[in-house]
Amino acid sequence: MAFFSKFFGNREPRALGIDIGSSAIKVVQLKKKNGQAILETYGELALGPYGGLSVGQAVQLPTDKISAALADLMKEKEVNVTTKSSGLSIPFSSSLMAVIEMPEVAQKELAIMVPIEARKYIPVPISEVMLDWSVIPRSDVRVESVAEELPQEGGGFAAPAAAMPKIDVLMVAIHKETIARFQEIVSSAGLDAGFFEIEIFATSRAVMDEGLRPVMIMDMGAATTKLYIIERGIVRASHTINRGSQDITSNLSKSLNMTPEQAEVMKREVGAAGDDKSVNDVIALVLDYIFAEANTVLLDYEQRYNKAVSKTILVGGGAALKGLLELAKANFKTEAELAEPFSKVAAPAFLEKILRETGPEFAVAIGLALRKLAEEEE
Ligand SMILES: Nc1ncnc2c1ncn2[C@@H]1O[C@H](COP(=O)(O)OP(=O)(O)OP(=O)(O)O)[C@@H](O)[C@H]1O
Ligand SMILES: [Mg+2]
User: Fold this and answer.
1) What is the CATH number of the domain that holds 147?
2) Whose CA is nearest to atom 30 of ligand 1?
3) Strand, coil or helix: 134
4) Nearest ligand to residue 23 Cα
5) Quick one: pLDDT band at residue 262, thresholds 50, 70, 90?
């Protein structure tokens, strides 16, 4: 095929997804061939050691250290990244999201009205943020407001509460300083970021199917566990639990008298369903707290919108814990499943098992790479 590649050699776009989490950087490189997204490489680097902490721990690092870590990951031979064109995630905690009610007016008017309304939700001057928004489709409008328009007995419709019909708008804001910081991290590492996207949007792209019923995504990271309820591609609710997988490590280390490094190894090797009851009990303590809060968020949503959440999809490194899925199934008020984001890309068969196991951790990076790949073709 050398003859053809001379002519079509550049028609294989490549894209890199970069997820800078609080405990690790994850990258995924894809290429497009014959209309298909193909996995070329993926890799991860723990950030803890760059701040004097151990692998698996969340760490706050200055921009230059993160940049150095990213550059180190790019240099790793086994990872072998070959493209600079990338998309980067912005942590959910650096964003502000709200569903706001607006009068039903033309898009042009909304473009003027949303930023004004947004001021009520954004604690800094509006000029300091990047603002984005989208109208939530009509059929998704809250049950209460739909009910106001139901036919009355004896014909006719009940008058809506307000004279003007309302629509719901999802508003998203990111501080410009945050974007500048991430821009600096990628450029110092010698990469080009085509876009910055809040992590949950990348995750949704990587793990959601076309289902219409609401789904909960649980992202278990090192320090926190993030919960989102997604309906028809739109984030309808979110919540952050101040517990994560590193709490399991530190509890194991304390109660079993081990170093954090030993505890981290034990967590990953034994997990939540091993033979050692004392290990299981320590892990269960952290998980019980997380499951209880997740169930509360779930119930709140179901009651408020009078809709059943169909399932919970587990992502994040914490979701790779052995035995977690079974515990989630037993404790959750919904079905639970592990995300399989690598199933959205083609990969060699011999990698199947490992990709299934590490998939939840790479959901954000895969979602970013998929978007970047689509944009590369435009
Ligand atoms: N195989 C495994 N078994 C158990 N825990 C694991 C495994 N692999 C990673 N973890 C844990 O997952 C956590 C990291 O998850 P992840 O990489 O999703 O976090 P992050 O993206 O850095 O955090 P955040 O999204 O909150 O910023 C660490 O605490 C790590 O110990
Ligand atoms: Mg993360």
Assistant:
1) 3.30.1490.300
2) 56
3) strand
4) 1
5) very high
Task: With a cut of 90, say whether residue 160 has pLDDT above it.
Answer: no
Spell out a b/e string for 238-251, using b for 16 or more CB atoms within 10 Å of the CB, else e.
bbbbebbbbbbbbb
Q: Which residues line ligand 1 (CB under 6 A)?
A: 21-24, 56, 91, 221-224, 245-246, 249, 264, 267-268, 316-318, 320-321, 361
What's at 55, amino acid-wise?
V
Cα–ligand 1 centroid distance for 79 (angstroms) = 19
Percent of the chain whose predicted confidence (pLDDT) is above 90: 78
Length of the chain: 378
Beta bridge partners of 5: none
Two tokens, residue 333: 């008020």
Nearest ligand to the C-alpha of residue 94? 1
- Taking CA atoms only, the protein residue closest to ligand 1 atom 19 is 221
Give residue-wise pLDDT tens across range 192-204: 999 999 999 999 9
Q: Of ligand 1's atoms, which has the minimum distance to the CA of residue 315?
A: 18
Residues with a beta carbon under 5 angstroms from ion ligand 2: 21, 221
Residue 243 token pair: 């517990």
> If you average pLDDT over every residue of the chain, what do you get?
90
Ligand 1 atom showing the smallest separation from residue 44 Cα: 17
Given 173, 190, 212, which residue is the final one in a domain?
A: 173
Q: At what angle do helices 277-305 and 245-255 cross, to 10 degrees?
A: 150
C-alpha distance from residue 52 to each of 59, 60, 185, 257 (Å): 9, 11, 20, 20
Domain boundary among 153, 173, 193: 173
Q: How far is CA 174 from the centre of its chain?
A: 16
Element (H, E) at 291: helix 277-305
Same domain for 216 and 155:
no
For the CA atoms of 29, 35, 36, 42, what is the dihedral angle to 10 degrees? 0
- Domain range for 82 is 2-94+175-376
pTM, two decimals, is: 0.90
* Orientation angle between helical segments 176-188 and 63-75, nearest 10 degrees: 40
Q: For the chain, report the end-to-end CA distance as a whole number of angstroms.
A: 25
Displacement of CA 291 from its chain's centroid (Å): 18
User: Based on the structure, what is the number of domains in the chain?
Assistant: 2
